[in-house]
Amino acid sequence: MPPANAWHLRQAVRILHAGGVVAYPTEAVYGLGCDPFDEQAVLRLLAIKGRAMDKGLILIAADHDQLAPLLLPQSPEAMAPVLASWPGPSTWILPAADGVPAWLTGDSDGIAVRVTAHPLAARLCAGFGGPLVSTSANTSGRPAARSALGVRRAFGNRLDYLLTGDTGGGSRPSEIRDARDGRLLRAGGASP
Predict the structure, then answer these.
(1) Strand order in the sheet with 110-115
(2) Rounded to an integer, what distance in angstroms lies between the CA atom of residue 175 and that of residue 5?
(3) Which CATH superfamily, name and number, covers 6-186?
(4) The whole model's pTM is what?
(5) Who contacts 29 (Cβ-Cβ below 8 Å, separation ≥6)?
(6) Residue 191: is its pLDDT beyond 50?
(7) E strand or H helix that includes residue 10
(8) What is the pLDDT of residue 188?
(9) pLDDT of residue 83
(10) Per-residue pLDDT tens over the stretch 125-172
(11) Quick one: which of 134, 101, 140 has its CA closest to 120?
């Protein structure tokens, strides 16, 4: 399947702004995304995926500036390992700013964020003008889709748009670390 061109990217952005749920390639697998501040879009994404809201969601962005309004200010020392890992397949849980919706944080007072290294995912965030929800394209408990065909097989016509392209080649979804205490919560997959 040919990769997305500028028209496809604009179409995906338009659908995101209209409250749609979009699938797109990331560093290792396809992701499902929507506007993180559109509660109905997030709830629909969770229903499609069969995921509980209390788990929280990962947000991806084109750069740190897109994430900064969602985060409590941290010391330069605390942010050094985070910023050194970005852009890249490293997701960090950082203290969430006041007012960040519970549908993003789940049962936590932190929020999971990543500056993506995937060029198409970064262009999607840049075109959208902010961060996007990024959860693996699978129904809860099933393997994540690694191709557009896998997304179609898993979700049929339940998604509003499929932005096609190659994943980044990682062997597993992004590593997740808690920046507050350094704990590794999920090991990530390195590129082959």
Answers:
(1) 132-133, 58-61, 110-115, 90-95, 175-178, 184-186
(2) 29
(3) DHBP synthase (3.90.870.10)
(4) 0.92
(5) 136, 137, 138, 144, 145, 146, 167, 170, 173
(6) no
(7) helix 6-17
(8) 66
(9) 96
(10) 999 999 999 999 999 889 999 999 999 999 999 999 999 999 987 766
(11) 134
